[in-house]
Amino acid sequence: MIEVAIVDSGIDGAHPTLRGKVQVTAGPWFGARPPDATANAPDLLGHGTAVAATLLRAAQRDDLSLLSLRVFDREPVCDFTDVLRALAHAIDAGVRIVNLSLGTTSLRHRQELQRLVDRARARGVRIVAPASYGGLPCDPGNLAGVEAVVGDPNVLPTLPELRRIGERFVWFASPLPPPDPDGIRRLLARGDSLAVAVVTGCLVRSLPR
Fold first, then answer.
1. Residues 62-77, mean pLDDT to the nearest whole number
2. 133-145 pLDDT per residue, tens
3. Residue 147: left if φ>0, alpha if ψ -120 to 50, beta else—which one?
4. How many alpha carbons fall within 13 Å on the CB side of residue 110?
5. How many domains does the chain have?
6. Left if phi > 0, otherwise alpha if psi is -120 to 50, otherwise beta: which for 137?
7. Could you read off the pLDDT of 10-58 as tens digits, one per residue?
8. Burial (Cβ within 10 Å: 0-12, 13-18, ≥19) of residue 146
9. Strand order across the beta sheet in which 23-29 lies
10. What is the 3 state secondary structure string of the chain?
């Protein structure tokens, strides 16, 4: 199995786009959570499930295992130190790729993020993250060694394009959610978060079986 970590709001493995198609493991919950919540609680935000569904569609494989590391609860906000801890856990867990459909425009965590990125590269782990947030550059997508992604609705849904921007290469990928099996798009998330998932899925698709 190829294991991918998704640092997000959790994954609802019973969703029609995922049920019976991918193995989902609930890892630790790093963000703040209600006292009665468990690691196996459903994805209350829906963002992580949309990311997982988009990733699965792009990967086009049946040997994929998703490790869900939760940092969000009902809103897509958290203390960024929770993200650092989740990222470190994913790297140490031995996954092949970390999908990080989030980032920070603050430079406060840049040194720690670069250390984590360097640790990931040394272990052969690829990190995929958005290059910007709200029109501003964000980390870790702007760090050397990270697969940076920009959402572009003109790119085909499962065929991201790698383009040279200045001194580095950046992925351009579709920001649109996948449809449910009946063809209706019920997953509400969209934007660079899903573009990141498309790139992660395509990187998975390129791995040898």
1. 91
2. 888 999 999 999 9
3. beta
4. 11
5. 1
6. beta
7. 999 998 889 899 999 999 889 776 655 555 677 888 899 999 999 999 9
8. buried
9. 23-29, 64-70, 2-8, 97-99, 126-130, 147-151, 168-173, 161-165
10. CEEEEEEECCCCCCCCCCCCCCEEEEEEECCCCCCCCCCCCCCCCCHHHHHHHHHHHHHCCCCEEEEEEECCCCCCCCCHHHHHHHHHHHHHHCCCEEECCCCECCCCCHHHHHHHHHHHHHCCCEEEEECEECCEECECCCCCCCEEEEECCCCCCCCCEEEEECCEEEEEECCCCCCCCCCCCCCCCCCHHHHHHHHHHHHHHCCCC
CA 163/CA 49 separation, integer angstroms: 28
CATH code of 44's domain: 3.40.50.200
User: Is the CB of residue 10 less than 8 Å from the CB of residue 48?
Assistant: yes
Listed in sequence order, the residues at least 6 apart from 189 whose beta carbon sits closer than 8 Å to its beta carbon are 46, 47, 50, 51, 177
Residue position matching structure tokens 């609705």: 153
Residues, the chain: 209
Tell if the pTM clears 0.85, that is, is over it.
yes
Print the domain residue range for 137. 2-205
Radius of gyration, alpha carbons of the chain = 16
